[in-house]
């Protein structure tokens, strides 16, 4: 009897938690990081949960199942956004607050945006990075392939050059429209008119081809410069970290 009472005095009370206290960033509970204890087993060597009384009847045959259940207790700081419903929770308040700030632009949003230096990358503008180590890792995983794989490098340069070459200026569009309007006027000698138009089209295509080649050469030089700047930025980021 005395042993039982002594045990009850020394044993910590079970952790009581409500759904709001687990996810509300203003809750005092969010200020404490939870450390997971070693798993306990019953007489049948099944894993059990002793955190809350309502979990005492639960048993788990595999440790991974027990770990998934314990995430509800040890990773209680979950994002309320429906998009993040399958996202694993966070063990401390800072993780949740950082996630909400960087992903959902809450709490004032990220302090600064670090953009990828590669202009053809989708992370060059719009959704960038908030930490230097993430930008450096992105450059290493994504853009270092350009240096090691000539086919990817050539394809990227050609795609960029072709996109730039096919962008028509307002003057070019106006000239094209005027040309089409004149072509609608009946000509007294259709064959001669068609030949002249064909020669003009060939001449224009040759001129466009020369310009395209010049733009490709220019893009190759710019790409080499961007690679050097990216390597320097990545090195500086790793040193700063």
Name a few traits of the molecule.
single chain; 3-stranded antiparallel β-sheet; Zinc_finger_trans_reg; Znf_C2H2_type; C2H2-type domain-containing protein; coiled coil
Beta-strand share of residues: under 5%
Q: If you average the pLDDT, what whole number results?
A: 67
Through-space gap between termini: 58 Å
From the alpha-carbon coordinates, what is the Rg to the nearest angstrom? 32 Å
Q: pLDDT below 50 for ≥5 consecutive residues: which ranges?
A: 1-33, 151-155, 164-170, 175-188
SSE string, helix = H, strand = E?
HHEEEHHHHHH
Main sheet summary: 3 strands, antiparallel
Shape: elongated
Overall SS class: mainly alpha
How would the blueprint of this fold be written?
Elements: H1 2-10, H2 19-23, E1 40-41, E2 47-48, E3 59-60, H3 63-74, H4 93-103, H5 132-148, H6 150-165, H7 170-183, H8 190-240
Antiparallel strand pairs: 1-2, 2-3
Helix pairs in contact: 5-6, 5-8, 6-8
Biased composition (Low complexity): 1-10
Region (Disordered): 1-40, 172-195
Protein name: C2H2-type domain-containing protein
């Amino acid at each position: 009897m005395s042993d039982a009472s002594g045990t009850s005095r020394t044993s910590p009370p079970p952790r009581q938690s409500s759904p709001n206290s687990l996810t509300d960033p203003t809750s005092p509970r969010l200020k404490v990081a939870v450390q997971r204890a070693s798993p306990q087993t019953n007489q049948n060597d099944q894993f059990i949960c002793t955190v809350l009384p309502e979990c005492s009847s639960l048993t788990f045959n595999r440790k991974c199942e027990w770990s998934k259940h314990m995430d509800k207790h040890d990773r209680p700081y979950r994002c309320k956004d429906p998009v993040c419903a399958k996202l694993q929770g966070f063990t401390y308040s800072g993780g949740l607050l950082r996630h909400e700030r960087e992903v959902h632009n809450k709490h004032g949003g990220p302090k600064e945006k670090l953009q990828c230096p590669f202009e053809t990358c989708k992370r060059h503008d719009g959704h960038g990075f908030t930490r230097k180590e993430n930008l450096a890792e992105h450059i290493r995983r994504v853009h270092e392939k350009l240096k090691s794989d000539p086919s990817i490098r050539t394809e990227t340069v050609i795609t960029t050059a072709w996109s730039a070459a096919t962008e028509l200026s307002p003057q070019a569009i106006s000239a094209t429209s005027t040309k089409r309007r004149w072509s609608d006027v009946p000509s007294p000698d259709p064959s001669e008119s068609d030949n002249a138009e064909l020669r003009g089209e060939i001449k224009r295509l040759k001129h466009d081809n020369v310009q395209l080649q010049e733009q490709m050469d220019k893009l190759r030089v710019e790409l080499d410069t961007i690679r050097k700047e990216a390597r320097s930025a990545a090195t500086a980021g790793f040193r700063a970290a």
